[in-house]
Amino acid sequence: MERFFSNKKAIAIFVLPTLILFTIIVFYPLIQIFIKSFYSWNGLSKGTFIGFKNYLRLFEDTTFKISIKNGLIFALFLTIYQIGLGTVLAFAASNVKTKGRNFFRIVYFLPVVLSVTVVCQLWLSVFNSEYGLLNKIFQIMGMDFMQDWLSDRNKAIYVLAFVNAWQYLGYQFALILAGIKSIPNHYYEAAQIDGASPLKAHLKITIPMLSETYRFCLVLAITGGLNAFTQMFIMTGGGPGTSSYTLTYMMYSSSFRAGEYGYGMAAASFLVLECLIATIVINRLVARERIVY
Amino acid sequence: MESSVKQIKNSKIPINKRRKPNLNITNIIFKGFLWIYATLSLYPIVWMFFYSFKNNDEIFVSNPFGPPTTLRFENYVSALTQYNVPKYFLNSVIVSLATVCLTIFLSTMFSYATARMRWKGQNFFRIFVSIGMFIPVQAILIPLAILVRDLNLSNKYLSLIIPYTAFNIAFSSMVLYGFLRSIPMELEEAACIDGAGIFTTFFKIILPNLKPAVATLAIFNFLQAWNEFPIALILITENSMKTLPLGLLFFQGQFTTDWGAMGAAMVIASLPTILFYIFFSNQVEKALTIGGAVKG
Lengths: 293, 296
Known about the structure:
Number of strands of chain B: 0
Radius of gyration of chain A: 24 Å
Helix content of chain A: over 70%
Oligomer: heterodimer
CATH superfamily of chain A: MetI-like
CATH topology of chain A: MetI-like fold
Number of domains of chain B: 2
CATH topology of the largest domain in chain B: MetI-like fold
CATH superfamily of the largest domain in chain B: MetI-like
Helix content of chain B: over 70%
Order of helices and strands of chain B: HHHHHHHHHHHHHH
Strand order of the largest sheet of chain A: 1-2
Shape of chain A: globular
CATH architecture of the largest domain in chain B: Orthogonal Bundle
CATH class of the largest domain in chain B: Mainly Alpha
Structural class of chain B: mainly alpha
Number of helices of chain A: 14
Largest sheet of chain B: none
Number of domains of chain A: 1
CATH architecture of chain A: Orthogonal Bundle
Largest sheet of chain A: 2 strands, antiparallel
């Protein structure tokens, strides 16, 4: 038995491909980010060591402040929309008969299987200032909300966050619904006997019991928000001006457009730290004890 | 042996027929809410289908909301000639499927060695690989681009498959680790007594037991690879190698005024996955349910 489980050759065959791949593709570049963030580097030559200059420049850069702020807005928006709304919808769906529940689940999940570019283009045409669906609806209803949604400095980031939230709500919804269905029914029966209303039963039983699901959902929503890139790239190009920049976008444009790789790496290392801190905080605060039914 | 494994798993599976707390007014509000969101979720997609059959006059002026009055299939013809949608679609399928297969293959082996075998450093390496979960793919974009350039991998399928796999391994290994830990050790003991070697045991006995977890991960990884944008944007420049998210960037570059053809291209790109999902939605949900129970 011992020989079976500590078969060295087998262990090497099982483990080495993964370790090699992971070290080269993930770990080595990760180290590179932190090292090269101290360099002035154009991506081709060796680059020159400049100490903390990239970071000092970063802290004075207004684009960096906008990027950090937008990342937080994006993450908060995703959390409220996907987890808040997703929870309410999942509660509602858990009361519906199986047939109807399947219908809603399929409808909510459909945007997830669309290509992200299709979703962005689709919403671009919805938000189009002249011909867009949204302005057309306002026009018909006689309301005075018609506007150029994506050219507004203050609104653009929320519109982008909405598009991302809309696409992935179905995924979070399915996770939460699956979590609710795995809670044993006798908890609810007991609550009913004690005279608790359905809403109260959900608040006192479902939400605490779902803490592990929520931990996973929160990590997805928050890191997804901090990393946001695709929506900006396709829908606004970071604009108007730099008002919808995020850290990833900033890293992208300073490296691949301005050729300042070292500066881009400094922004990237901030992104790594942000995501690391967010994940650690979520793991510390939510679902510290494993629930066993 | 087999049945005892099943029993342990069954005890976790919820009873389907259950009575949830029920009240009429709450029910009506809940139902209304579900329908309102269903509209918000579905109508933009339906609207896209509608306008893929319309001409500009219908989209902009005469009939922006409703179904098309005449089915203009010429939109689809011009979409197929203007945009190379089937090629992009094929590229996406190849990259996503290869990523799924490679990820599952590598992470089942890796997590088996860390979860059940005994060797020095098994915990260290397990945690080492799990770093990948906390790092955003986008963050290492620049060094990755340079690495791929140095390895001469640009504009090949592998230049996407390898990074996607390397990143997905972390999550997959963690899920599989939890799953493998919950299978009783007697499984291997029995196989060992029967004279099976480690590889036979792994492929013939362990892998079949991992099916539910693997199904979850296949779907999860597929969706990740299917919608990945930034890496593909940096590493793929050749038109014939583009994946769907890249290929469908109409608004970038030239400004498109032919909304009908654009809509048709988007429908062609979306229809296969939508149909696939509708046919297999139960499997997808089952997979997610088990994913919910395993993760963490």
